[in-house]
Amino acid sequence: xxxxxxxxxxxxxxxxxxxxxxxxxxxxxxxxxxxxxxxxxxxxxxxxxxxxxxxxxxxxxxxxxxxxxxxxxxxxxxxxxxxxxxxxxxxxxxxxxxxxxxxxxxxxxxxxxxxxxxxxxxxxxxxxxxxxxxxxxxxxxx
Length: 142
Known about the structure:
Distance between the termini: 47 Å
Oligomer: single chain
Radius of gyration: 17 Å
Strand content: over 45%
Number of helices: 1
Order of helices and strands: EEEEEEEEEEEEEEEHEE
Largest sheet: 9 strands, mixed
Shape: globular
């Protein structure tokens, strides 16, 4: 479904009952509630909570709430608490809500394109301290 937005541009909606096998390239904004088995390239991506993308995502801005199994490259990236990402993430600006799950490496896009020294991977662990609390910690593996 393609709908006009307020400024005359269009956005496309992939409904929750839709599965697409193949790559998607859109100059319009894209809202995904269904399942995509392929790469997505678009201007702005909004992913619904129950949706799934199996493939790479490239977008100017992306707001992710579902499952992604693949790499993500976005200028502005928001990862909501319901999101589960399995893959490397390259970004210029990043927001992650507490509770989001990411299994992969984070790298600013500038660092990803420069032949600079690669940062060690980040590992999130839960500390079972003597007071019995579960407190997440960010540890750089090296």
